[in-house]
């Protein structure tokens, strides 16, 4: 009889485990889409006629904040987090905002 109750107990726990696993998978997918889908930023390495002298606006890939040349912290962004922009409009279109300590 205890064997019967063990089977029943396992069957009753199984939907809960399945529900938890489904929740974890859905959460992982949502997090993956958020971090790697919608916020993926392509740095300006396209084969257009852009030269480095055209790119004066420096964005931070992690904070989504951009700095103008001459602003505090312009040179403090880690190299692997830099995203270059030609214009402020381009930075804003790509979801960045200007640094609060940039008084321009």
Low-confidence stretches: 38-49
Number of helices in the DSSP assignment: 2
Terminal-residue CA separation: 79 Å
Give the number of DSSP strands: 4
Please report which band the strand proportion falls in: under 5%, 5-15%, 15-25%, 25-35%, 35-45% or over 45%. Answer: 5-15%
How large is the radius of gyration? 24 Å
Structural domain tally: 2
Rounded average pLDDT: 74
Please give the largest β-sheet. 4 strands, mixed
Helix content: 40-55%
Give a written overview of the molecule:
With 104 residues, the chain is of the alpha+beta class. The protein has 2 domains: 1-40; 52-98, no CATH class. It has helices at 2-38, 88-93; strands at residues 57-60, 65-67, 82-85, 97-98. A 4-stranded mixed beta sheet has the order 3-1-2-4. The termini are far apart.
Protein topology:
Layout: H1 2-38, E1 57-60, E2 65-67, E3 82-85, H2 88-93, E4 97-98
Parallel strand pairs: 2-4
Antiparallel strand pairs: 1-2, 1-3
């Amino acid at each position: 009889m205890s064997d019967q109750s063990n089977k029943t107990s396992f069957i009753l726990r199984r939907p809960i485990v399945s529900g938890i696993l489904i929740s974890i998978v859905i959460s992982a997918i949502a997090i993956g889409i958020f971090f790697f889908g919608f916020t993926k930023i392509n740095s300006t390495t396209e084969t257009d006629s852009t030269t480095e002298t055209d790119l004066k606006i420096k964005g931070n890939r992690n904070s989504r904040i951009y700095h103008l040349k001459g602003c505090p912290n312009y040179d403090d962004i880690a190299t692997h987090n830099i995203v270059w922009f030609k214009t402020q409009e381009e930075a804003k279109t790509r979801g960045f905002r200007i640094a609060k300590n940039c008084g321009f």
